[in-house]
Write a structure and sequence with these properties.
Blueprint (H helix, E strand, L loop, with lengths): L1 E3 L10 E4 L10 H13 L4 E6 L1 H18 L13 E6 L10 E6 L4 E6 L7 E2 L11 H20 L5 H22 L3 H19 L5 H13 L3 H30 L5 H11 L13 H10 L4 H4 L7 H10 L2
Parallel strand pairs: 3-4, 4-7
Antiparallel strand pairs: 1-2, 1-3, 5-6
Helix pairs in contact: 1-2, 3-4, 3-5, 3-7, 4-5, 6-7, 6-9, 7-8, 9-11
Length: 321
């Protein structure tokens, strides 16, 4: 929903001037360009995004480019964004809790990442009703993606005491709720959404991790759903990082009474039906090779808690091929 104010909507003081539904998977550059043109032509100053990570990231991308064009790039969280963004997430991924976005260049089959302090949605509406009727497999994949975001926040070199505490709380909440929520339990679905919101909040004060980075690259290259890829990367990335983030990983394991967290996540994946390998998701061997080659320029790979070279990326992806 595209809004402009002031308008005839009573206390809200805003007018709805249109809608935009040409989003696509992975924020195609063409979608960002199309929405950006409408925002400028119709003097839009607010957008309500209703959808998953691609929908929310699209609004962040447009906000970024509008600010750049107007010469008012966000420099701090106290700056006013060019667009007031109200996000209504309909999945459990953490896009509503981050100030970065990834936009897909269809011709190059690559993801370009940008960030700004003013890109985080001004308001986020967390409502269990929006999850009613979504497929169980989407609950499972995006729930595991939220679990991955909690892991990111817990082990991030940029973590703060607040983000670490939020991450542990989120991890425990998601862990206990995911299986029953996939089975349709309404109370568990509410708890799962609360856990995902905590994970997104923790993400605000840390940095996306290696699983997120590789999932972005693979999704852009192959068209595989981001959540399907990141949900399969959680366990192998934990095994890869345990030598340098053992105490943080052990803290998460204690929260869910696990003696081997990576193995326990594998078991949770099987329990919730998230077992597809990359080849099942349409990723080709050529895609794997391309992602390995371009991984070293990704900003989140560069700041991963454990230094990660091309050979490391190849070995990680091979485990879920």
């Amino acid at each position: 929903r595209l809004g402009r104010g002031p308008g005839p909507l009573g206390g809200a003081g805003r007018a709805v001037v249109g809608t935009f539904d040409e989003v696509g998977v992975g924020v195609p550059a063409t979608a960002a360009q199309a929405l950006g043109r409408r925002v400028l032509a119709e003097a839009v100053d607010g957008i309500v995004s209703v959808g998953g990570g691609s929908v929310i990231d699209l609004v962040k991308a447009v906000t970024f480019f509008v600010e750049q064009q107007q010469g008012t790039p966000g420099l701090s969280v106290t700056d006013k964004p060019a667009l007031v963004h109200v996000a209504v997430p309909t999945t459990l991924v953490g896009a509503a809790g981050s100030n970065h976005f990834a936009m897909t260049d269809g011709s190059a089959r690559a993801a370009h990442v940008a960030a700004s302090p003013t890109l985080m949605p001004r308001f986020v509406v967390v409502d269990p009703a929006v999850l009613d009727g979504i497929p169980a497999d989407l609950v499972a994949r995006t729930g595991l993606a939220a679990l991955a975001h909690a892991v990111d926040a817990a082990v991030s070199p940029n973590r703060s005491p607040e983000s670490e505490a939020l991450a542990v709380a989120a991890f425990g909440r998601i862990w206990g709720a995911l299986g029953p929520a996939v089975g349709g339990d309404a109370d568990a679905t509410t708890a799962l959404q609360e856990g995902a919101a905590l994970a997104a909040r923790a993400w605000q004060h840390s940095a996306p991790g290696l699983a997120h980075a590789l999932a972005q690259l693979l999704a852009a290259r192959s068209g595989a759903p981001y959540a399907a890829v990141v949900s399969r990367l959680v366990a192998p990335v934990l095994r890869f990082e345990v030598d340098v983030a053992g105490s943080q990983i052990e803290q998460l394991a204690r929260a869910v009474l696990s003696s081997d967290l990576a193995d326990s996540i594998d078991e949770l994946s099987v329990e919730t039906g998230v077992t597809a390998g990359l080849s099942d998701l349409g990723v080709s061997e050529d895609d794997l090779g391309a992602v390995v080659r371009i991984s070293q320029s990704n900003p989140f790979v560069k700041v991963a808690v454990r230094p990660t070279g091309e050979a490391d990326v190849a070995a990680l992806l091979e485990t879920i091929w």
